[in-house]
Amino acid sequence: MNFVESIFSSTKILFVKEKIIDESFRISLFTTKKLSPHILFLVDPAVSMAVELAEEISRRTGSVVFTGIRQNPDVDLINRIVENYRNENPDIIWGIGGGSTMDTAKAVALMLDNEGDFEEFLHGAKSFKKRTRILIATPTTAGTGAEVTRFGVYTDRNGRKISLASSFLQPDYAVLIPSLTYTLPPAITAATAFDALTHALEVLWNRNSDPVTDELAIGVAAEITGIMERAFDSSLSGSIDGRDEMLCAATKAGIAFNLTGTAAIHALSFPLSEEWHLPHGAACAFFIEDVWKLNAGNPEVKRKLDRVASITGHKNSEELLEKILKVRSRMNLPSTFNEAGIEAEKEDLFEIFLKTLDDFKMKNNIVEVTPQVIGEIVTAKV
């Protein structure tokens, strides 16, 4: 068993290609000194292969499997899971699913060791003191990168999506099992691919970037640009071509943005999910050209984007963006409010998106986003 340790990430990464059950069972033994560790599996019920994997390991260890996960985990869901399983006293929390499932696992692992209402921690009224449980994350989509990040996204009781950052949220192990992504439908393949791409891009126009994060993000942005359409075609045909590569690239993008945070695209995406329930990756794809063009006005950012273009065989970043937008259209991801099924007056949209200026992710953007910029972006999308 070879866990790969990266100089960029404290999360140990393991790629499992064959003998999934046996190898995953050995992982559970390896990560704790106990011969029969007690594991709390939090699993996306929509991925039958993931449920089967968790149930098989559970039978061998006497562990428990929870499948009541839902998209955009909220405060009450986290509190309920913690209340139901605190007495189980699990040694390992293992999330198997998309970003929502892995974020749920992160929060539960923390809250089992920290008393209180999760909303208090989400809004900073309380701070996390420790985490004693081993945290393992296995993605079933190729996009969020949550398996290697110190971030989680949760919905508070007012319906607001909040990004939470803490070193305690960083998984100890990321177990990549490509076969869990082989049956991803086209819509999810498309949305998560753009999520991964924007993770890499948001490093390049980030105030927190440096030469090291830039090199990592330039390479992975080029990689994803070259893979994402092939993975999408596989989802249409039922083949697996590009799936393994897309999963690995998404994880690398997660490692990159874990060092810097995200920026304007992700800040702007949140209202689309909060107000109109647009999937997160689709919401990121929605704003890609607006934020790209804004930041490309910075000469240093333009230089980085031109490097990505050169690696991918495009003459400049403008040509690369044109290609990306054609891929977005082919993947049937919306680019206007009308295409997204959103009916609202321009003035109301402006007020909704104006609130994103308070988001710490927006403050990471290297080019300042002003109310005027918000107005221009909204107008362009109407």
Quick tags:
Dehydroquinate synthase-like, alpha domain; 2 domains; 382 residues; Rossmann fold; alpha/beta; two-stranded antiparallel ribbon; 7-stranded mixed β-sheet; 16 helices; globular
Topology:
Elements: E1 4-6, E2 9-15, H1 20-30, E3 39-43, H2 48-61, E4 64-66, H3 75-85, E5 92-97, H4 99-111, H5 118-122, E6 134-139, E7 151-155, E8 161-165, E9 173-176, H6 186-204, H7 211-237, H8 243-260, H9 264-276, H10 280-286, H11 288-296, H12 299-311, H13 317-330, H14 346-354, H15 360-363, H16 371-381
Parallel strand pairs: 2-9, 3-4, 3-5, 5-6, 6-9
Antiparallel strand pairs: 1-2, 7-8
Helix pairs in contact: 1-2, 3-4, 6-7, 6-8, 6-10, 7-8, 7-12, 9-10, 12-13, 14-16
Structure description:
The chain has 382 residues and is of the alpha/beta class. The protein folds into 2 domains: 4-180, Rossmann fold (3-Layer(aba) Sandwich); 184-381, Dehydroquinate synthase-like - alpha domain (Dehydroquinate synthase-like, alpha domain). The chain has 16 helices and 9 strands. It has helices at residues 20-30, 48-61, 75-85, 99-111, 118-122, 186-204, 211-237, 243-260, 264-276, 280-286, 288-296, 299-311, 317-330, 346-354, 360-363, 371-381, and strands spanning 4-6, 9-15, 39-43, 64-66, 92-97, 134-139, 151-155, 161-165, 173-176. A 7-stranded mixed β-sheet has the order 1-2-9-6-5-3-4, with helices on both faces. A hairpin with a 5-residue loop joins strand 7 (151-155) and strand 8 (161-165). Helix 7 packs antiparallel against helix 8. The mean pLDDT is 95.
